[in-house]
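yo

u said u wanted the structure for the complex thing, so here. seqs first:
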Amino acid sequence: MSTATAGSLQEHEVAHHFEDLEQEFESHRFGMWLFMASEIMMFGALLTGGLFLLYLHPDAFAQGRAHLDWRLGALNTFFLLTSGFTMARAAAFAQKAEQGKVRTNLLLSLALAAGFLVVKCIEYKAKFHHGLLPGNAFHGAGFTSPHAHIFFGYYFVTTGLHALHVLVGMGLMIWCLKVSNRVRFTRAYYTPVEMAGIYWALVDLVWIFLFPLLYLVG
Amino acid sequence: MDTTKSFWLPEKASTFADAVDFGFNLYYWISVFFFVLIVFLMAWFVVRYIRRRPDQLASAQITHNTLLETTWTAIPLLIVMGLFVLGMKGYWNMRVAPSNAMQIDVTGRKWAWSFDYPKEGISNDTLVVPVHQPIRLRMTSVDVIHSFFIPAFRTKADVIPGRYHSLWFEATKTGVFQVFCTQYCGTNHSYMWTAVKVVTAEEYAAWLEAASDPSKGKTPEEFGEILYSKKGCVACHSVDGSVGIGPTWKGIWGTEVPLEGGGEAIVNEAYAKQSMMEPASQVVKGFQPIMPPFQGVLSDKEVDALTAYIRSLK
Amino acid sequence: MTAHAENINYLKTTRGLKSWLTTVDHKRIGLMYLASILVFFITGGLYAMLFRLELWSPEKNFLTPDQYNNFFTLHGVIMVFLVVVPGIPGALGNFVLPLQIGAKDLAFPKLNLTSLYLYWIGAALAIISLFAGHADSGWTFYAPYSLSKNPAVLWMLTAAFILGFSSILTGLNFIVTIHKMRAPGMTWFRMPLFIWALYATAIMQVFATPVLGITLILLLVENFFHIGIFDPALGGDPILMQHFFWFYSHPAVYIIVVPGFGIASELISAFSKREIFGYKFIAYSSVAITIIGFLVWGHHMFVAGQSEVADTIFSFLTFFTAIPSAIKVFNWTTTLYKGSISLQTPMLYGLQILFNFTIGGLTGIILAILSVDIHLHDTYFVVSHFHYVAMGTTMIAFIGGVHYWWPKMTGKMFNEFWGRLASILVFIGFNTTFFVQLIMGSQGSPRRYYHYLKEFQIYHQISTTGILILATGLFMALINLLLSLRGPSNAPQNPWGARTLEWEVAETPPVLFNFKETPVVTHGPYEFATEKS
Ligand code: HEA
Ligand code: HEA
Ligand code: CUA
Ligand SMILES: [Cu+2]
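structre next:
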């Protein structure tokens, strides 16, 4: 697999057990959607648990939220939504067989995702600094609610799990870039970009629910 | 002896029992009917339509019959809806205590029960109640989830740390009835038993009299010995020198014990009290920190009695 | 690979351990699942035998309370997560599904191998747990008991988490394959009922298992960082944990049983040479169970301290599970009517499923009656109920299915005499073990009890005798199957005269890509009427 120039791109080969390219593509896309459904169930349960905790300890959530900077959250929302857009563009260009533009958009998405993680790191660092840590490690000052540690525990679990998904999503983008070095995307074959795009939509979606739950309500 | 015991169900001794048993028995016969029907048909068809020649084909290929399908969808549906209503009625009755119910506090801990009569200030390890009197148990646990089950009363409820859960009943006859813990709670889950003693109103009054001061006429050591088994210390501590879940009490008084995480402690009044109130604060080396805290459970007098008892164990 | 390699028996295309470990052939993966699941079934069964022997008398025989608690936990976890959830889909589903719908393989063969590896990793972690101390939380992992940072419990949690992933990926693979890979002419209503059952199961695997995943993550995090979500000492709610757990584990019981229903349909129809009665009803009822199954988890928590209104609603919804189950039971029974019934070994298991499931299902309904469940909850009655469905229905279906597809998998016929004898012993042993548990349960004998009231001893002794008979039967069946491997490859292409593709079209054993050419389906799976004799 040498790095190929645009001219030497190969055509994609259909795997042995599929009848044709269409069957292969549809199977992959359908499988990806199912996987997303599964992920949504997981995050859905986690968010439901969060709502329940909010209901149990509204004061903890209110005081905890006061320590989060909604502006950083909003910036991150912006990063994710924009990258969602660039991913959609990448898929659209892939269908038009414009390999170069696909790569630009993938790189843009990758940069935005990295921006998201940088902001997240800044936020985490501030929490660590103020002792706003989960559970026993918690030693934040100035809380009247005895359950403030629950808010931060929940904050780290959810945003941590989400950040893990961001990382996986970035991995998928890099994989798409590598494939684009080798194989020609066409209207019939743009599966990798489509897959990564679907996955990235999930990352966006989850954040759209997490952001208000953690930064805005309570 | 107990004529109310049947092949399927234990003795009945509370006002719930009739309704529960009625539901059980009714459903039992419904099940017998369906079970016999299905097994009978199955056996009959097998005998009747057994393949006699290897190449014999089925004598008919009936693929469906909408009338049949509708019937056997509708009939079970009607039956189960009836069962639902029956169960719901009995259940709400179990959950809503009458307003004249007498309240007793129940505490579950690994692996013993204690019952507190708030008005009389009595604490006991068996539940003593008057017959024909609604009783409401207000239950909580100091460690993990337990569950309070009295088969003869047909009732149970989980006993949950950090919150109160209640259960009520009215006993219909006197006697001693078995109580089990039915939520898995660790090593001695299956030993976490006690009894409900249902007595007449007069006996109950007399018992209250006697129980309100259990230490009357006893030395602290004697009282401590009673508490040792009553409060459940016996589950983990021996008095004969053998090591159980916790250290033995024999001959520890005045000795120095090594603590988990370094350091030592001398077994004296202060240490003993501390060990009972906040056991996790000083854990003896080589043991798990699993002793439940007795803060708010043991009165000062009881602590003193236990301490005296430990001291007496040379 | 030469052109001909595709046309030889899948067992012979390549050789050596490595060729098996790296294979993407669904048939070989199915066989590897089968072997692994058998190992764990025997392990789980041995634990059951040990603790049942301990229960011979109420006092100590040869286990300490801690060992007893450890053993029933291991038994439960192994049986659920390593045997009965992956069992039929992993072993039989993998082997049979593509063959029955006329596909060359599953949609994602590599993902399929990944599932198997995840299963192995999960199994390895479970084995580590055996050496890390006493895992004793029960298979339900209730907090706060499971929060004591017991390393063995932590390994178990991680194992269950990984096994959950394996299960999700298998389910996903099956759904896509069923949607996209059917052979020409294989319409939805020409699919065998086993496929419908796997389809319904797969939906539950994909949608319910992630909730188990997050529950286990939260439990692990709670153990290490004390977040306070489930731990009441930190302001958390232990009941929330139970909701999370049962939201998965109730659908899981249908994940367990529905594939067994599928096998029952295949066996009863094939050995009666009868078009199955009410095909569409059975197919839809599998899907109906799936949907209802998501809404009833709270029936495990009637005494746990959720609100009375919640209890009432969950009880109400639970009763609806009786309807699709009733439809199946009655349709199977009616299928026997005017059939040409052959009592070969697989059919003996098929009839046992019908018998046991009727008891298991009926005892489930009584648990849904609120007032009665208050009495029966956490007694041996519940233990008996779920063994009638999990062992009596699913594992019996599994064993029946293994006998049924054994010739297709291996090319060998097993000995009929020993096969039938074993199945009769299994029937007697199983019912002896578990029927008495219904009686002692309703008498009030609690479950998870090392030590019990003297008056229950006689029931325990009958039950323990039962498992000895049961184990004899199961080992006899296993040895009978294994011995056939040493015999000649004598299996005909269609020994049972079934009408589904894997018997009618595929060779015995099938070729590498299942069919020499893509089959075109022209009739339904049970059309015995058009068969020429
Ligand atoms: C493996 C599969 C499996 C299956 C298929 C079922 C099927 C059912 N289960 Fe069971 N169940 C378990 C596995 C299973 N269960 C397990 C593992 C537990 C315990 C977990 C633990 O605590 O460790 C449990 C516990 C359990 C409880 C909690 C008990 C308690 O802890 O207090 C309840 C309560 O409602 C229940 C109900 C039901 C019902 C209503 C069905 C129904 O689906 C049954 C429907 C079937 C029929 C009804 C029979 C066929 C129909 C007819 C013959 C027609 C006539 C019928 C009528 C008129 C009623 N189950
Ligand atoms: C879901 C699957 C499943 C299966 C199949 C079984 C199978 C068996 N189970 Fe168990 N059981 C559980 C799931 C299961 N169990 C669960 C979830 C619990 C609750 C745990 C808890 O409380 O946390 C439990 C608890 C439980 C208890 C209650 C313990 C207690 O509460 O104290 C008992 C008691 O008798 C018991 C017994 C048995 C017996 C005798 C078998 C027998 O059927 C076993 C028979 C098997 C063998 C003897 C092995 C030999 C097998 C072969 C040789 C293979 C042959 C194969 C072919 C021919 C293909 N089980
Ligand atoms: Cu307390 Cu079980
Ligand atoms: Cu259930």
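Chain A touches chain C through 36 residues (CB under 8 Å). Chain A has one domain: 19-136+145-216.
cya
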